[in-house]
Design goal:
The structure is a homodimer of 403-residue chains. The first copy, chain A, has 403 residues and is of the alpha/beta class. At the A-B interface, α4 of A face α13 of B.
Chain lengths: 403, 403
């Protein structure tokens, strides 16, 4: 039942605490030499003991065969059908750097890049420092295009968020990032279904980019910007309001903070390590009903194709787990948003292993936390959008449907 | 995610080959003496070895408890929600004998039958030969009804396809086949929601059938025809276009060729045996991205209630399997469209065992190919309409959804 209003109508009050620990890209594929995935290879005594006293299963972020980006995958974990509530990349970037978006705002993801003799030679401008990025954003702030306000803010390294503000802007326009080197930056074009608003928007975007090329002309290596993922803020009812929750997010990367904010969570202060994140959980324990902890590096090392490093990341999380258990959450879920098998060096469609510990769940024969062991879990293979109802039920926060 | 347009938007290019081998009616029920199904009874060393290196599971063509016909079951396997994209029996018959249908065409399935003293004594007219069928169709071609063109073509034995052509025909009319002997052929009646068009259509159909009775009066045993499954061509976007595939079908029965054609596949020349079908696969290997191989006889022997003969059919397929493996498809799926347990002598709702071999899938503990062993497969029990996304993903042909 992925209808949020159906679920919202059943929501009741309880004094119980839920923790959702997402190890990004947790799921993997077997190493050809051992037949074991990253999670199955890692020494995880704490996760294994937890699995033994949990209900286990696997979740599809979207559906069989569909590889999700992190945005939709997290929307699903928070109880939103990820296709019905699609959030554009530009919006995620802008929210992630703390820009508030309104209905007249159009956001895009920006890469600083290097252009030589008219063609892109480096789509990331040698991964310039965040400080250089900030200085360049200051220079770009001087651009003044009639009829539109533009604000650009640095993310990390070569990435920035750009927001245009004007009435009637359309997100039905194309990227200017050709996604490969050796080509010129593309012009922003209106999409066929975007009508007059898209035509006007594309013209304004191109005027801005022409000015950006002038402003950055003397810089090196970052002498141009590429834009993609033009998007406006979608209407998303907040989970905090839908289910009467106080929710806190402990995430170190802007984009995950952004999704959390979008659904009504408060983003909590934390240091960069997983140990720091558990510190933040301890500090805030009394103030929230629902905690989302996002651990990024399992995904990063999977994307690198570094099987052993991903194994180490999983072990790092495992080592801190006892501190979470000491807080004795009423509902504790450990899972991934999607799989990122080191063997594929990228996101994949394979379902994510999941454990859910609560006093109100069934048990199963699962005695270790892994992709294969979770197959015999009592939760089966299910859709990630159904996780939130399961958590709320176990937290004593969902009423009966019907009499 | 069974929305074809969602999936189509994610489709990308790759040079990879997929093979879908459908053993019609593959799934079964346990023999009371052994507790093993047809597939579990068969000696299948090749399928078992393949299962051991595949991801296994079971699929529901439509859903628990729903017994599908072959048409909807195959639509699901090709990625079309079988209820949303319903194809009438008449259309399948007509396409199966090579009749092209347009918007003014109304197609029906025909049985030659025997009528004595006004009641049907044999619904299949003693299964007349296909040659006799063709001769009778020639006789029926002389029928001339004002305001409508009619064309009838032989299928196999007592079956034929009948297509009426006139503007504004309706498919909201009833069958004239009462589905049992001892009754008179029924009159074609308009359905209540069919309006004036259905009334006019029923009158034309009845006029045709009255003339058919006159034309066939001196024949024996085939002295009348029964019609059912009146249907018009639905609008079905072709899978070849949706996903950018070149797809070839290797099927020996008209109806499966028809469904394949309907979704954009090219029907490839093949002899009647499974060995011939694998020959056809080898001959065409370089020219297509996706092959659908349909093996009919597992279903036929299941319908006959002949457990041992169905076992032999499965063994016949198993023996040819190494030749398919030698072609080294990137994705190989072996499954059924639905179950046809010999114990039930007909189609059933039980999910079909499935194996999927690809370099990009997880492994599981399944070491033999059977209904019970596949229960512990890593694909779980899923909906047949999700098979195509899974195949495309494994073939490297689906982009990520969202960022």
């Amino acid at each position: 039942m992925s209808d949020i209003h159906f679920l919202s109508d059943l929501a009741g009050k309880a004094s119980s605490r839920m923790v959702l620990l997402v190890m990004d890209g947790l799921g993997g594929l077997p190493h050809p030499e051992t037949g074991m995935t990253e999670l199955e290879t890692a020494r995880t005594p704490n996760l294994d003991a937890l699995a033994a006293e949990s209900a286990c299963g696997l979740i599809h972020a979207i559906g069989p065969g569909i590889t999700p980006g992190s945005g939709p995958a997290h929307m699903a974990l928070f109880g939103y059908h990820p296709v019905r509530f699609e959030v554009g990349r530009g919006v995620l970037s802008a929210l992630g750097v703390g820009m508030d978006l309104g209905p007249d705002d159009l956001a895009a993801r920006v890469n600083f890049c290097t252009v030589e003799d008219g063609v892109i030679t480096d789509r990331r401008a040698g991964r310039i420092s965040t400080e250089t990025n900030a200085r360049l954003c200051d220079k770009l702030a001087s651009i003044d295009i009639e009829g539109i306000k533009a604000e650009i803010r640095p993310e990390k390294e070569h990435r920035a968020a750009l927001v245009f503000n004007a009435p009637g802007l359309s997100d039905r326009v194309t990227d200017t990032d050709p996604q490969k080197t050796g080509l010129a930056p593309l012009r922003c074009e209106p999409l066929p279904d975007g009508g007059e608003a898209a035509e006007r928007t594309a013209a304004l975007v191109n005027a801005y980019l022409d000015r950006a090329a002038e402003v950055l002309a003397d810089e090196h290596p970052a002498n141009m910007i590429l834009t993609r993922g033009f998007a406006k803020l979608p209407h998303i009812p907040k989970m905090t309001e839908l289910y009467g929750l106080r929710a806190g997010a402990i995430a170190t990367y802007p984009m995950y903070q952004a999704v959390a904010k979008l659904v009504g969570m408060e983003v909590l202060e934390t240091g960069p390590s997983f140990k720091d994140q558990v510190d933040a959980l301890e500090r805030n324990w009394g103030d929230f009903d629902y905690f989302f902890i996002h651990y990024k590096y399992t995904d990063s090392r999977g994307e690198d194709g570094d099987f052993a490093a991903k194994v180490s990341c999983i072990e790092e999380v495992d080592a801190e787990l006892p501190r979470i258990l000491e807080l004795d959450p009423d509902v504790l879920v450990v899972t991934g948003d999607h799989s990122t098998p080191a063997m594929l060096k990228g996101h994949s469609w394979h379902p994510s292993p999941l454990l859910l510990r609560s006093r109100r769940e069934r048990r199963d024969g699962v005695r270790s936390f892994g992709e294969t062991s979770c197959l015999s879990g009592c939760l089966g293979i299910f859709s990630a959008v159904d996780l939130l109802p399961l958590m709320l039920a176990n937290a004593g926060r969902l009423e009966k449907f019907g009499a």
